[in-house]
Each structure stands twice: as C-alpha cells, then as structure tokens.
Amino acid sequence: MAKVLVTGADGFIGSHLVEHLVAEGHEVRALAQYNSFNSWGWLDHLPSLDGVEVVSGDIRDAQFCTTLTQGVETVFHLAALIAIPYSYVAPDSYVETNVRGTLNICQAALNAGCARVIHTSTSEVYGTARYVPIDEAHPLQPQSPYSASKIGADAIAMSFQSAFELPLTIARPFNTYGPRQSARAVIPTIIAQIAAGATQIKLGDVTPTRDFNYVLDTCRGFFLKLFFGPRELAG
C-alpha cells in the first residue's frame, strides 16, 4: 500500500481518483483548495473518507507544498484553474496557479524524494487540431491564456525531469465526462435538455469532433502509472 497525494482532489476528476485509489487499497492525502466556507468541494459528497487525509491549502504557497509532499511516495497533480472563459479576464491567476503552482509541487516532490509525479495537462495545449487523430508530435498552440498556462506548466514539469531527474509523467486527458462534471459541458447539456423534454437538442456548432473518456477510465489510466515508468502520455 502506497501513500499518495492527490492535488485538486476536490474537483471532478480528482474526487473520482481519490475514490479509486482508496478502493485499490492506497492511503491518500487529498488536497482541497482552502476557502472560508470550510468546503472540500466534491469530497464533501463522497460516501466515506476512510483512508483519506484531507488537507486544505493552496499550491501557490511554496512552503505549504513542502509540507504537503512529506512522506508521500506518489504525487498525482491535478490542481489547476481550468475555466477557459475566465482565463481571458484574469490571466495572471492562471499563471500563478497553473505555472507557479506546478513549479512549487515539482520542487517540493523533488526535495521530498517522491518516487513519481503524474502531472495533469490537457488536450487544450494542442489548440485547434492541425491533423487528426492528435498525437504527441502535434504542435502545441496556446489559443487561450488557460492553454498557455498549461503549456507553461508542462514545460516546468518536463524541465524537472530533464534537469533534476524527477520521475515524471505528463498525462493529457481528452474530454473526460461523468458524474460531478460541470453542467456547462456538452454531455450534461444534452442530458439536461432531454430531461427537460426537449424534442430537438440545441448545441450550436456540431461540426467539431471529440474523443470522450469516461472519468473512471481516466482514473484507471492515472492509477496504472503507479506500476509503469515515467513518460509523457497524450490522450
């Protein structure tokens, strides 16, 4: 049984990953972003937190990250600001959280001697596809401040592997869906319209194509990195 850290554990994918890791017998330290409401996000809705040590804090604080990673074998780094529209309004926030926050986690994991770090990226780093299917050789295209911040976070993480030999994997999930997903996403939008009795689904432009991954399959992909060596993964 390994002691693992999940940052962003209060979010959609993070909360499912916490559940999956506990079900597989691992001891989990779960980071929820500190807030004055004493809310742990989606962790508040889990049927049980047995085997989970919930910690509130902020990855923008380097000293906090140093404490957070102590005694941890594996770090699943999912904490990030993710809303694309808000990144146009407050880009500094995205750089501070996604880039500097990732720097803090990598530095802390390196100093703590963690055996591996799985850093979560996004398909948004590829921008509008120049060819399909997208593969790891596809050019990175920062088409929003959010995607630019995630490209920067990936580069920081990769530099720690190259310069300091931090055992690192970059995972880039594509269009994860499932319970606890934001209602703004396309599949919840379709379900909501059907539930409301709509006879015609309204989605706007339906010409783009997408790959959809069920959230538990995404979590299984993360989990497998406990047993295989570091490399960069796309999709």
Question: Would you write up a description of this structure?
Answer:
This protein is of the alpha/beta class and 235 residues long. The protein has one domain (3-178, 212-224): NAD(P)-binding Rossmann-like Domain (Rossmann fold, 3-Layer(aba) Sandwich). It is built from seven helices and eight strands. Strands 3-2-1-4-5-6 form a six-stranded parallel sheet, with helices on both faces. A two-stranded parallel sheet has the order 7-8.
CATH architecture: 3-Layer(aba) Sandwich
Biggest sheet, in brief?
A: 6 strands, parallel
| CATH classification class | Alpha Beta
- The count of β-strands is 8
Count of discrete alpha- or pi-helical segments spanning 4 or more residues: 7
Unreliable segments of 5+ consecutive residues:
none
Distance between the termini: 27 Å
Q: What order do the strands of the largest sheet run in, or round the barrel if closed?
A: 3-2-1-4-5-6
Question: Percent of residues in beta strands?
Answer: 5-15%
Shape annotation = globular
Write a brief caption for the model.
The chain is of the alpha/beta class. It has seven helices and eight strands, in the order βαββαβααβαββαβα. It has one domain (3-178, 212-224): Rossmann fold (3-Layer(aba) Sandwich).
